[in-house]
Specification:
There is one protein chain. This protein has about 280 residues and is an alpha+beta fold. The protein is built from eleven helices and six strands. It has three domains: about 5-90, no CATH class; about 115-125 and about 230-260, no CATH class; about 135-225, Roll (Chitinase A, domain 3). Strand 1 and strand 2 (about 35) form a beta hairpin. The chain is elongated and about 90 Å long. Mean pLDDT is about 85; it is low at about 1-25.
């Protein structure tokens, strides 16, 4: 959540009376006698985000302090101009106060949901439901036409090393220099004609020429396996993020369900007429 507009609006109050939390902070600079604290540097660093990302680390702190100097001076000038006296300032201050309250509340509550136990439980449940997926580790030699592919296949049948022939003849700019190696892949990562043949071959087997939209291939399967499950430690940051977002969504939905929302800017829905009483015989 962006804090810069709130900072611009509320700094006037900080100039008149230093907040209690700021009194405990280390003062790192002053401008016209107004303190700039470590806590404010942290808030400004979070607020400036992308702007700071483009700077080298050694320049970031100076950039933040310079920004806070300008902010303090601007806020002081705004107070002198009585900018804070109008109803617009009060409305903006109230709006951004509520926005930050919601953000901090959701962040704190969401952290409670993303426990190590909850993350492990979600990981175990998800991986248990995942069907094993086959992977192939293969090499290929790509040439332009069928005659070339047949010639390649003949050389391989006579015992020539697949990787050496691939390095010599393959037109694939990515794998050719690597002896035709494509590494491990699942069926959906390759064009259908290629994948259909590769996944039918046994370990160590070499295919007949195969045509695809890229040309003609000769394929050798080096190995086959079931795709390993993602390591828990590797995916835990994504799991935590999911748990936190879901918790926030659940909180908002629960708050709305309990609330009475009235739209005064829209006409009221017409009342449903009562059912007619049946006629007496």
């Amino acid at each position: 959540m962006k804090l810069s507009r709130l900072g611009m609006l509320s700094l006037g109050l900080a100039l008149v009376a230093t907040p209690v939390f700021a009194q405990a902070d280390k003062v790192v600079a002053r401008v016209d006698g107004i303190a700039i604290t470590e806590r404010e540097i942290g808030l400004a660093t979070e607020d400036l985000g992308e702007r700071l990302a483009q700077l080298p680390d050694e320049r970031k702190r100076d950039e933040v302090i310079n920004y806070l100097v300008d902010l303090k001076l601007g806020a002081k000038a705004a107070i002198a101009a009585k900018t804070a006296d109008g109803p617009d300032f009060a409305a903006r201050l109230a709006y951004f106060r509520e926005k930050i309250l919601l953000d901090q509340y959701l962040t704190a509550e969401a952290k409670k949901a993303a426990t190590p136990e909850a993350a492990r439980k979600l990981y175990d449940e998800t991986t248990k439901a995942m069907a094993p997926e086959e992977e192939v580790n293969a090499r290929h030699i790509l040439v332009e036409d069928e005659a070339q592919a047949k010639a390649v296949a003949e050389r391989l049948k006579k015992g020539e090393d697949f990787a050496k022939v691939a390095a010599e003849l393959s037109k694939d700019p990515g794998s050719g220099k690597e002896g035709g190696s494509l590494g491990w892949f699942t069926k959906d990562r390759m064009v259908p004609e290629f994948a259909e043949v590769a996944f039918k071959l046994n370990k160590g087997q070499v295919s007949d020429p195969v045509k695809s939209q890229f040309g003609w291939h000769v394929i050798k399967v080096e190995d086959k396996r079931s795709k390993p499950l993602p390591d828990f430690a590797m995916v835990k940051p994504q799991i935590d993020q999911y748990l936190e977002r879901k918790a926030q969504q659940d909180i908002i939905v629960a708050l709305r369900d309990k609330a009475k929302v009235e739209r005064l800017d829209q006409p009221a829905a017409p009342a449903t007429p009562a059912p007619a009483e049946p006629k007496k015989p």
